[in-house]
Request: fold
Amino acid sequence: MRHAVAIRIGPIGFRVGSDWRAPVAALETLYRDYPRPDVPDFTVRLFARRPWRRFVRPSVEIGGDYMLPEAAPLPLSQGLLAAEMAMNLQMALGGRRYLLLHASAVERDGRALLMTGISGAGKSTLASLLAARGWRFMGDEFALLDPATGLVHAFPRLISLKNEGIAAAIAARPDARLGPLMPDTPKGDIRHMVPDARAIAAMDVAATPALLLFPRYGFAAEVRPVPPAEAFVRMTQASTNYVALGEAGFGALTRLIGAVPSLAVDYPDGASAVAQVEALWDAL
Amino acid sequence: MTDAWPLARALADPSTTAALDADGWTALLTMARAEQLIGTLAVRLQGLPMPASVVRILEDVRAGAEQGRRAALWEAEMARRALAPLGGPVVLLKGTAFVAAGMLAGQGRSIGDLDILVPRGDLDAVEAALLGAGWEWVKPDPYDDAYYRRWMHELPPLIHRERDRMIDVHHTILPLTARPTPDAAALIAARVDLGNGLSVLTPNDMIVHAAAHLFADGDLAGGLRNLWDIRCLVEEFGTEGLAERAVHHGLSGEVARALRLSASVFDGVATRSVDRLYLRRLLARDGWGRPTRPVTRFAFYVRSHWLRMPPAMLARHLWTKWRKSSSLKSLPVRA
Reply:
């Protein structure tokens, strides 16, 4: 392809090829402190479906080793978003080494806190707020659970901030490096933030899971235990490759649910959430 | 070169990968994924020297293929249970047959849908039994449904509502509109029982089926994988009696072409000029996994329809499809 860049994020290497310079340039800038993979695990392609669409209302199609046939193209101004979506898609559809949990993860003292929930539940925001208070950021999209060891591996790709979360995250980390503001994407306003230097430097360090939270934003503060059977089922739904992994996935998830407490946390605002989470952590 | 020769070479002679650098490996793995041959490649290359990153990737691929094998066999067992009360033969086809019979062609093979062959007289009962056991129609369009029932060699595809897996129920191996008319009754009569209530075709009939699928039916999408199946079948079982069997099914030209192309792609035997165009199509894939040679591809797409039905019918069919939707993507006839 005309333009290409290779990046390693945690244990996963990507190669991104593009018909345009801009998305590759953005990736090179924002991922400049990340290592390069030897032979990448996945290939991503950003391309124009018709040759003239490289120039006339340029429209970025998403492809690669694995594709969703119905994925809609994005305008070139959202090329960085297309690249990030395409990389996540390769993981979601093709990842087999780890049980992929759609969760954010932070680490303290070698132990990992996993937070999962529907989009808008606040898992990304909470992870970035905790990272600003000294936790190590491991990722806000996928937590990689190794069926062989039970450890969680980091996948600290760019943090995808959305809508009102953008200002909140920048206020918490005013010195952070940021991608362009992309208004009016399919998910509203989006801006990417580079994880802090510590998250990148330690991205090959795995952690033992210690606590699983199901946060929910916009409710009066409350904590309730989630019974193991419910936690198990919710996590099968939060995993993109649970079925594909077969017995290995079942074993990994059973072990995780058996080993860590699962709690549902309702919170009215970020400050309360951080206080609730840290109190739960200290009580472990 | 923008074609898939490195993949063909690596499959046929795994030691050729010793010469690859990181970029060469990257291109090879990407091509193999795009051609759905990565599992086969992973099995073929196991134990050879390669970069640590490739070792890791291919370990995962083998684990994935093993899980795919298990899921395919489970799906076959589910179909067996649903159809057992009917008492008729159920013959597994393609990938599921290869793994169920423990054949070389099944090693690492990617398996999508479950394909079975049943006697044409059993079709209504089979359909009813599958619907009763949780399978549902995929295609809601009445034209597509009627087209399948009248002209195709299979029922419209069904999908299981809980397991999300497709089943294709064949009553023969080529569309009824195609010029060759394979002897479906003979395929079933010669079947090899696996001892678990399921059967597979004889190796010769498997080769005939693969060749029919490649050269008399589809547009050669996934053709490299099908050609590799044929090579494995020939390597494991030889070709004794194959020529007579191909004549019996009216597919001797297709089978001969399959053997020639397999020898050319995988064993470096010089190609006849008449086969060059097929080679261009079979290997039209670059190191980014992209399909190449759009003109050749389109020619084979047109050819596949031309082979499938007589001209007047083709015109009527395409006209109906075009009116229903101006997009080629929704053509119901699948490769």
In short: Residues 44 and 64 of chain A are 4 Å apart (CA to CA).
